[in-house]
Backbone:
């Protein structure tokens, strides 16, 4: 018994040291620039429809700012066309996914032709996830049940704080913008 107790006391400092090392490593990983594009920790992303680049960050504003800075370098003024929210009521806390175009871009008033299509929300971890959606620049969005614009589709949506009111919360697998 006494040997066992002594053994535990003797190993306790070593456990703390190992924990400290692990925390230090985790901290370094979190600070690395590459982590900014890692989806699991950075759940706010901006997809630039002009440059085809996706920029992620820990907050919605940081993701938009990072995309704007990168776009500015290639002469594009980012402007948000639509934002998907994991949560209802445009609450960014659960994650956001925004799609931006060039600053001069405005969607046409008509729903035809479709101006942008996003065929694979699953690849970004956003299939069956959006629960509210906001559009800008005269754009509207049509949600599709499955990827590649297949299955059932919603009506054209301007803004909707709770997609559940039309049976489309946590459902969209792809979508169109017009
Ligand atoms: Ca959701």
Residues:
């Amino acid at each position: 018994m006494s040997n066992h107790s002594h053994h535990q006391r003797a190993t306790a400092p070593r456990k703390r040291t190992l924990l400290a090392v692990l925390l230090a490593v985790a901290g370094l990983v979190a600070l690395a620039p590459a982590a900014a594009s890692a989806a699991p920790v950075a759940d706010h992303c901006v997809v630039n429809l002009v440059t085809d680049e996706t920029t992620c960050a820990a907050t919605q504003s940081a993701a938009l700012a990072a995309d704007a800075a990168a776009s500015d370098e290639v002469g594009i003024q980012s402007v948000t066309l639509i934002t998907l929210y994991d949560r209802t009521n445009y609450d960014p806390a659960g994650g956001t996914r925004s799609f931006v175009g060039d600053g001069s871009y405005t969607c046409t008033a008509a729903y035809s032709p479709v101006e942008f299509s996003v065929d694979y929300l699953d690849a970004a971890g956003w299939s069956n996830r959006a629960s509210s959606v906001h559009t800008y620049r005269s754009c509207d969005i049509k949600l599709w049940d499955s990827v590649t614009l297949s299955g059932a589709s919603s009506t054209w949506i301007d803004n909707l704080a709770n997609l559940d009111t039309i049976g489309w919360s946590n459902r969209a697998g792809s979508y169109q913008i017009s």
